Amino acid sequence: xxxxxxxxxxxxxxxxxxxxxxxxxxxxxxxxxxxxxxxxxxxxxxxxxxxxxxxxxxxxxxxxxxxxxxxxxxxxxxxxxxxxxxxxxxxxxxxxxxxxxxxxxxxxxxxxxxxxxxxxxxxxxxxxxxxxxxxxxxxxxxxxxxxxxxxxxxxxxxxxxxxxxxxxxxxxxxxxxxxxxxxxxxxxxxxxxxxxxxxxxxxxxxxxxxxxxxxxxxxxxxxxxxxxxxxxxxxxxxxxxxxxxxxxx
Length: 249
Description:
Largest sheet: 3 strands, mixed
Number of helices: 12
Low-confidence stretches: 1-24, 82-87
Mean pLDDT: 79
Strand content: 5-15%
Shape: globular
């Protein structure tokens, strides 16, 4: 899941804007897609199970790489994003970036919760536990495909050009972050380099997603992000922000 964190903003934006009925199914879709991604990116080779310290270090390293890529990509991509060669996303890109920056603690909370609840590491590094290896390039591609499928379905259902422009901007930035992240790991991802993998079982993954979604107040977080983006100059977005009050009821 930590490899997909670079696309959290896209998932969050789609969640803000879909209908209440679709949003109620969102977490179930995330759970199914996450497990599908994990299964699809597994390979036949086996390595030892990571200790909890190793898993924590790799997640932290990946997070710092993604944040560094986001800083670079924001500066390069936000200036170039347009809609139909006429639409300007916002006159206040620094204010909009502050909305993303304000959600970094929330993203950390989600990752830390999942890391704990998924029970994928060993505290003492007991010998003999073997875990299948993951192809992380393939994993990132599968995450990207799943997110793009959700985004394309959403874009076909929405008629607000301003909202479409926000999604277009987020997609361009996410693509840049992915390219940057892969470049940073061209010589091997953290788990590959230290020779271990987390043992993520389907049951534990489902439990972790469900429990963490309940503990992080995601509706409130997404609503504040929506309103912040509206205040930063994204016209036509404010009318969607109140939707978070009824999602899941």
